[in-house]
Write the structure tokens for this entry.
Amino acid sequence: MLCAESVDLPEGADVEGLRIDLRDAPRVRGGRPVITARMAAFGETAWPYTEDVNRPELSEPFEVSLIPYHHRANRGPATMRVWMPCA
């Protein structure tokens, strides 16, 4: 199982706002799985998997490395997320 950690996100970003951009397939870069993601404005929706038409605005796409779940928190204090909604 893979997860995203806050230390791999842009500065100040929270894993709560992480959304996977499905337009790009996952790939391997430097031996680590990488996905394309976008950040949603934190707190704009009560539930990230909503079908609500009032979706939050998303950031420009960026790459995020994923790590094995059992390796999490090995690089200092961090928040992590396993299940991520799609952009």
User: Anything to note?
Assistant: The chain has a mean pLDDT of 85. The longest strand covers residues 32-39. Strands lie at 2-5, 18-20, 27-29, 32-39, 62-65, 67-68, 80-81.
